């Protein structure tokens, strides 16, 4: 138990597809005791398990389109129901203004970490991405390759490419980010909770995110913190 509800951090990490939300979130949870909730990981888990939601959302994801707000909001808010015991980091949600408004009603957000990475940088990255579906661990053939090619470092299980990382689908995802998610940044900017981090390399962005979070939360592992990884 961390403490009373009012002292719990309610953070969101935002940024275009491939900006490094998953990569930075993995580093955040290594350093700070908060629960990472990724909408994309949750949807892919539902697709793998062929749940009702998984079957419903597959065609949207494969086409690079956003899931309808009602479905997405219900899914994420039900995950948040038991979240009054710990700090939370939402990744990939909210992605539209109606989602942000629905979230605000049950769980007002106090910090938004915006990864501001240019689109040209992103296009190159996504085609080189491989993931371990069961854990959500993310690799990149240039940036953080697995120790054994095609294999997850921890479990030794095979890695796969995401169906929505095909070049034409990546373009659609970037367009929907521009049209539907950019206004969410404006929404949070007006509320005074937006913190933007611009750059093209996660290793340069991360130390700045790390220092920023140190002003909000106690660190769980001081020794690792010193290495900034
Ligand atoms: P997701 O799963 O939320 P996206 O599109 O927002 O998908 P994505 O693709 O998961 O975001 P990311 O998490 O921002 O990207 O980035 P990442 O995985 O950490 O890094 C991308 C790659 O770059 C990796 O291979 C990584 O190793 C590499 N990398 C990181 N840093 C560097 C670097 O510095 N240099 C280099 N060279 N490489 C680097 O959503 C998927 C779909 O689900 C639906 C939508 O259909 C969406 O398209 N969805 C929703 N729909 C409606 N509402 C919502 N709220 C929804 N949430 C999900
Ligand atoms: Mg992600």
Strand order of the largest sheet: 2-3-1-4-7
The CATH topology annotation reads as: Rossmann fold
- The unreliable regions are none
Give the CATH superfamily. Answer: P-loop containing nucleotide triphosphate hydrolases
- Please give the number of β-strands: 7
Helix percentage range: 40-55%
Number of helices: 9
Unique ligands: P1-(5'-adenosyl)-P5-(5'-guanosyl) pentaphosphate, magnesium ion
Topology summary:
Layout: E1 10-14, H1 21-31, E2 34-38, H2 39-48, H3 52-62, H4 69-80, E3 87-91, H5 97-106, E4 111-116, H6 119-126, E5 129-132, E6 137-140, H7 167-191, E7 194-198, H8 202-214, H9 222-227
Parallel strand pairs: 1-3, 1-4, 2-3, 4-7
Antiparallel strand pairs: 5-6
Helix pairs in contact: 1-8, 2-3, 4-5
The structure holds P1-(5'-adenosyl)-P5-(5'-guanosyl) pentaphosphate and magnesium ion (MG).
């Amino acid at each position: 138990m961390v403490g009373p509800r009012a002292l719990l951090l309610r953070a969101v990490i935002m940024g275009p597809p491939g900006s490094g939300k998953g990569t930075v979130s993995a580093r955040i949870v290594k350093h700070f005791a908060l629960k990472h909730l990724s909408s994309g990981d949750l949807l892919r888990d539902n697709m793998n398990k062929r749940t009702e939601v998984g079957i419903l959302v597959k065609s949207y994801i494969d086409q690079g389109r956003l899931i309808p707000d009602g479905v997405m909001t219900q899914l994420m808010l039900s995950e948040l129901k038991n979240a009054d015991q710990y700090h939370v980091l939402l990744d990939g949600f909210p992605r539209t203004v109606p989602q942000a408004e629905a979230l605000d009603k049950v769980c007002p957000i106090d910090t938004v970490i915006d990864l501001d990475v240019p689109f040209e940088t992103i296009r190159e990255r996504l085609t080189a991405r491989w993931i371990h579906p069961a854990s959500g661990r993310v690799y990149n053939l240039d940036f953080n390759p697995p120790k054994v090619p095609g294999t997850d470092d921890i479990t030794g299980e095979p890695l796969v490419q995401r169906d929505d990382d095909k070049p034409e689908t990546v373009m659609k995802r970037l367009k929907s980010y521009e049209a539907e998610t950019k206004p969410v940044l404006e929404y949070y900017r007006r509320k005074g909770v937006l913190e933007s981090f611009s750059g093209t390399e996660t290793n340069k962005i991360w130390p700045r995110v790390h220092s920023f979070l140190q002003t909000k939360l106690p660190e769980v592992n001081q020794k690792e913190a010193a290495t900034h990884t």
